[in-house]
Amino acid sequence: MTAIPQGRGRRAALVSAICALVVTGTGLTGCGSGDPDAGTNGVGKLPAGTIESRTRAAAKSASALRLSGTVVGNGGTYTLDMRLKSDGGTGSVTSRTGSFKVLRVGPHLFLKADAAFWNQEGADGGGDSAAAANKLEGKYVKVPTGDPAYKRFSGFTDKDVLLDSLLTLHGSLGTDGHHEQDGIRTIRITGDKGSGGTLDVSLEGTPYPLNLVRAGNAGTLRMSDWGKDFSLAEPPKKETVDYGKQLPAS
Questions:
Q1: Domain of life here (predicted)?
Q2: Strand 76-85 relative to strand 88-95: parallel, antiparallel, unpaired?
Q3: Which ranges of 6-154 does DSSP label H, i.e. alpha helix?
Q4: Is 214 helix (H, G, I), strand (E, B) or coil?
Q5: Which among 145, 132, 158, 143 has a CA at the least distance from the CA of 67?
Q6: Which stretch of 10-19, 152-161, 183-192, 239-248 has the lowest confidence by average pLDDT?
Q7: Which of 26, 49, 119, 151 has the CA that lies 20 to 30 A from 168?
Q8: Is 156 in a helix, a strand, or coil?
């Protein structure tokens, strides 16, 4: 059973009590009229294309969010759990071959992983590569901006890049009724009746995107904590390895 937040439960109880009094006292039946958009932000009554553009604008203007779930691509499945804002992000990425933590503060990007991760990143897998991997294990490795790894991994921490690439529905847009995500009422928009992906948009407050099912079984992503700030700071020097201009064998 899903717990109902106290504020929501009290509000629902109050509405029910008022409806009971109105019906008992006057015989009117206005309460529970069945309008799914009653008391919402109104986007549920808009065309699907307008809803999509409004939710994109809301996402872009938000100061922060949490993005979690799975993305299928490049021959593998990646599980993300990232907190993002305009000047960086932090979180973890897991795939079949392992996992790593990623942190970006402004232009400074850091990766933290075990020796197995760094060994597979090495070019030749020889003794030198293995020795370097052991040195990097458990440390925050500062990735030089000119290193090929910088472009590969910094995208996981870029709020606008991630949202622009992920918040995409393919084909003709439409709506698929009213739904709920974590107790929040939503309107669902679809691409090609669902085969091109689905996106649940909040009907409460700002129309933020809350849940995305990507086309072609390419993953499902949950978006939450919109506008909730979080601490973002570089790791302590004693926990950091800085290789200067290029990582070993990258």
A1: Bacteria
A2: antiparallel
A3: 6-26, 48-61, 115-121, 127-136, 148-154
A4: coil
A5: 158
A6: 10-19
A7: 151
A8: helix
Whether 14 and 6 have beta carbons less than 8 Å apart is answered as no
Instruction: Annotate 52-85 with b (16+ C-beta within 10 A) or e (fewer).
Output: bebbbebbeebebbbbbbebeeeeeebebebbbb
Distance CA(203)–CA(36), nearest Å, equals 10
What number of H helices and E strands is found in the chain? 6, 12
Count of CB atoms within 10 A of residue 124's CB? 9
- pTM for this prediction: 0.79
Tell me the Cα Rg of the chain.
Answer: 23
Closest CA to 246 of 115, 129, 142: 142
Using DSSP, state whether 129 is helix, strand or coil. helix
How many angstroms separate the CA atoms of 219 and 211, rounded?
11
Please tell me whether residue 201 adopts helix, strand or coil conformation: strand
> Which residue is it, tokens 């921490």?
157
- Which H/E stretch holds residue 164? helix 159-166
- Within 13 A of 222's CA, how many CA atoms are on the CB side? 10
Q: 7: which DSSP letter? A: H
- Please answer whether residues 162 and 223 qualify as being in contact, where contact means their C-beta atoms are separated by less than 8 angstroms: no
Q: pLDDT digit string (tens) for 24-46?
A: 443 344 455 578 899 999 999 99
- Residue 192 contacts residue 171 (beta carbons within 8 Å): yes
